[in-house]
Amino acid sequence: MVLLVDIGNTHTHAAVATADGIVTDIRLPSESLAFGKAERSFNKLLSLVKVERPAGAVFCSVVPRFNLPLKRMLRAHLKCSTWQLTSRTVTGIGIDYPKPSTIGADRLANAIAANARFGPPVIVVDFGTAVTFDVVDASGNYTGGIIAPGLSAMTDYLHEKTALLPLIKIAEPESVVGRDTRGAMLSGAVYGYRGLIGELVRKLKRELNAPRLPVVATGGCAALMAAKMPVIRHVEPRLTLEGLRLAGQVGRPAWWRT
Questions:
Q1: Matching CATH topology for 2-84 and 119-237?
Q2: What is the predicted pLDDT for the residue at 80?
Q3: Given pLDDT bands bounded at 50, 70 and 90, which one contains residue 137?
Q4: What is the pLDDT of residue 161?
């Protein structure tokens, strides 16, 4: 079995996988990697599948300062080596992008998984700290995307920069017209972002000349946002991890025989 680790700005998503698929997964605060508090979470993850240590670890990261602490922890406590997904090690898709090194590795993982599952062309919308769109063109190449602030980033910013707006948790609004401050903020975030996503998908379909372009959602708010958006046909909470699994399977084939 192999450990998969997706290090995000706020949370780290980890899983145990075999050559056939992901077995189980957990989420933990990314800061726990820096403070040496992630070991217990990884051990708990492995204990769920009765594995003392994985054959290896495949990871991607958008927070470079957490990379070394992760590698040290895995080497010291789990005695396993690591393989990192980057624009230089990517497999499963091509890259048609001016500066490949600037592409977030989680976005590459999303593209790998979506391309393998649905075929090209395909769009991934990832609802994380940022809302990102990743585009795989008809030739199977990662060709770019779109970045917008995440829903929580927007509502948190309003709370931090205003005197009277509260800190809220993203949820489905009761109506478009907010009957209190929380309801008004939820309407702006959820309905506003559905409008943003719908318009961007419409423009992407036109630009790619692909009216039936599959749209796949992943990330923390994916299910909520997709529930009332017919344009999003697929919700895949483990999409990034699945991309890591597929990339690692090609990048380190010996691990999958262990």
A1: yes
A2: 86
A3: very high
A4: 94
| CA 204 remoteness from chain centre | 20
Q: Which residues pair with 132 in a beta bridge?
A: 126, 147
Which helix (DSSP H) or strand (DSSP E) does residue 2 occupy? strand 2-7
Strand order in the sheet with 11-18: 21-29, 11-18, 2-7, 56-61, 82-84
Identity of the amino acid at 146: I
Residue of 80, 12, 15, 46 lying closest to 243 (CA atoms): 15
Mapped onto helix, strand or coil, the DSSP state of residue 131 is strand
State the DSSP code for 210: -
CATH second-level architecture of 2-84? 2-Layer Sandwich (3.30)
Q: Is 134 in the active site?
A: no
Q: Kindly state the average pLDDT of the residues 52-58.
A: 88
The pLDDT value recorded for residue 236 is: 96
- Of 20, 25, 106, 126, catalytic: 106
Question: Is 80 exceeded by the pLDDT of residue 255?
Answer: no
Structure tokens at 258: 């262990």
Cis ω before 121 (30° cut-off from 0): yes
The CATH class given to the 119-237 domain equals alpha beta
Q: Is the pLDDT of residue 17 over 60?
A: yes
DSSP 8-class letter at 251: H
Looking at the predicted structure, is the pLDDT value of residue 256 above 60?
Answer: no
Structural domain spans, the chain = 2-84, 119-237
Which residue is it, tokens 């602030």? 149
